[in-house]
């Protein structure tokens, strides 16, 4: 039976990455009904994430199929890449290609997320390995919804190799501008985040509509000071504003395991003394049930995909960033149609010290621009349709030769070829 390989930074878990995986699984299965889908990612909990999604005919890629299994071969020094034990690496590439052929794999698809950048440069090896496996197996390689910033100029040579993907799509304008300046390819597109596909379906599988509104909080502790900010937005003055707006529920969402939670009894007792309920929701519950949404809920988040999904569904909120990586991400959501305020941590702290400012944000009439949202949804549909039509296609000889030339320039040890 024929199959497809989806590759992403999944299985940690992180709800945003698993949400992208889920929408691509659904879109593959709607068009390619009889294909087995293999999912490849670095997280040890990938099988549980797939199981929580309640999808059929989807499996974790074995190590013999895994592109991610190759990232440990790479060392990065300046603009060059060295490969440890190059002979073994070549054998691994050939073995992965052989296994993919045995499963009649018709495509390798690196789906969206911000994992191909200088913050996590060990992932750059995915570009090289995907292309080499694709060449060896004679199957097309795609990438969708990527965010490639921040990128150290020393790593531009690595990003340039993306031009040899059959289709290459990015989620933000800055990534598109950078890749357009580096790559000689007409295949680069900017259609927005892959999660937009959930809004193109009859039923959005990433949300869970609730009867009562909530203050929904999702704050991280990586690249952000989550617990320090949580104290500010749960002050007595803030709780009084929420109650006055007839919002009596607090939901604390953990997109990743280390995101903020309310665990001390004193805080729980204080919130409950205002007549409010408190619910902690973990990442697995999110994968299974979706984000809790209500037109009168108010979101407070540092997480990119929470901003995107909640705002474009219709929830009001505020997005807070304290790192350039997240500045680009949150601003890209505004470009895709969100009307949420995006601010830094100091500005957000000042807002939650002012009851009138909080009230103003909660009372805003709309969370997104419908014209802009529809525009990016149409772009994402067009990209999806183009990609799915090319699955099962072949690659031409010019792809081989051009890639070899550029790879020699990038790799310290040309014997990789």
Question: Which short descriptors sum up this protein?
Answer:
single chain; 417 residues; Rossmann fold; 7-stranded parallel β-sheet; 17 helices; 43% helix
Helix/strand layout:
Blueprint: E1 3-7, H1 15-31, E2 36-40, H2 46-53, E3 58-60, E4 74-77, E5 80-83, H3 86-102, E6 105-110, H4 125-137, E7 141-146, H5 156-160, E8 167-170, H6 173-182, E9 188-190, H7 196-199, E10 207-209, E11 215-218, H8 226-233, H9 236-244, E12 249-253, H10 265-272, E13 277-281, H11 283-289, E14 291-293, E15 298-301, H12 304-313, E16 316-321, H13 324-335, E17 341-344, H14 345-351, H15 355-362, H16 370-390, H17 397-410
Parallel strand pairs: 1-2, 1-6, 2-3, 6-7, 7-8, 8-9, 10-14, 11-12, 11-15, 12-13, 15-16, 16-17
Antiparallel strand pairs: 4-5
Describe the structure.
It comes from Commensalibacter oyaizuii. One of its GO terms (molecular function) is transferase activity. Residues 14-324 form the Polysaccharide pyruvyl transferase domain. Keywords: Transferase. With 417 residues, the chain is an alpha/beta fold. It has two domains: 3-201 and 376-416, Rossmann fold (3-Layer(aba) Sandwich), CATH 3.40.50; 207-372, Rossmann fold. The chain has helices at residues 15-31, 46-53, 86-102, 125-137, 156-160, 173-182, 196-199, 226-233, 236-244, 265-272, 283-289, 304-313, 324-335, 345-351, 355-362, 370-390, 397-410, and strands at residues 3-7, 36-40, 58-60, 74-77, 80-83, 105-110, 141-146, 167-170, 188-190, 207-209, 215-218, 249-253, 277-281, 291-293, 298-301, 316-321, 341-344. It has a seven-stranded parallel sheet, sandwiched between helices. Strands 13-12-11-15-16-17 form a six-stranded parallel sheet. The longest helix has 21 residues, at 370-390.
């Amino acid at each position: 039976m024929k199959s497809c390989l989806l590759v992403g930074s999944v299985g940690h878990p992180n709800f945003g990455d698993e949400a992208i995986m889920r929408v691509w699984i659904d879109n593959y299965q709607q068009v390619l009904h009889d294909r087995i889908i293999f999912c490849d990612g670095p997280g040890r909990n990938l099988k549980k994430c797939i199981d929580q999604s309640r999808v059929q005919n989807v499996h974790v890629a074995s190590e013999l199929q895994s592109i991610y299994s190759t990232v440990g071969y790479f060392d990065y020094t300046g603009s060059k890449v060295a490969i440890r034990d190059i002979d073994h690496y070549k054998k691994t590439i050939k073995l992965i290609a052989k296994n993919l052929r045995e499963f009649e794999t018709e495509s390798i698809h690196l789906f969206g997320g911000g994992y191909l950048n200088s913050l996590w440069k060990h992932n750059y090896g995915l570009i090289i390995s995907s292309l080499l496996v694709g060449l060896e197996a004679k199957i097309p390689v795609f990438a969708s919804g990527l965010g490639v910033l921040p990128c150290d100029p020393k790593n531009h040579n690595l990003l340039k190799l993306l031009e040899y993907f059959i289709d290459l799509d990015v989620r933000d304008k800055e990534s598109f501008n950078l890749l357009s300046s580096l790559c000689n390819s007409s295949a680069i597109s900017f259609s927005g985040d892959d999660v937009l596909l959930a809004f193109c379906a009859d039923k959005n599988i990433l949300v869970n509509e609730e009867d009562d509104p909530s203050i929904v909080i999702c704050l991280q502790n990586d690249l952000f000071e989550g617990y320090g900010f949580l104290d500010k937005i749960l002050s007595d003055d803030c709780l009084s504003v929420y109650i006055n707006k007839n919002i009596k529920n607090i939901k604390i969402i953990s997109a990743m395991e280390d995101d903020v939670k309310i665990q001390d009894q004193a805080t729980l007792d204080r919130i409950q003394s205002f007549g409010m309920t408190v619910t902690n929701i973990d990442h697995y519950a999110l994968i299974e049930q979706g984000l809790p949404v209500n037109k009168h809920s108010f979101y407070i988040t540092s997480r990119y995909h929470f901003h995107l999904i909640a705002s474009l569904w219709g929830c009001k909120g505020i997005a807070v960033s304290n790192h350039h990586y997240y500045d680009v991400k949150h601003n890209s959501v505004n470009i895709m149609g969100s009307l949420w305020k995006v601010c830094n941590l100091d500005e957000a702290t000042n807002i939650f010290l002012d009851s009138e400012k909080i009230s103003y944000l909660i009372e805003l009439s709309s969370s997104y621009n419908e014209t802009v949202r529809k525009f990016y949804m149409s772009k994402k549909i067009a990209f999806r349709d183009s990609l799915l039509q090319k699955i099962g296609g072949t690659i031409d000889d010019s792809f081989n030769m051009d890639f070899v030339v550029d790879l020699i320039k990038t790799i310290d040890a040309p014997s990789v070829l």
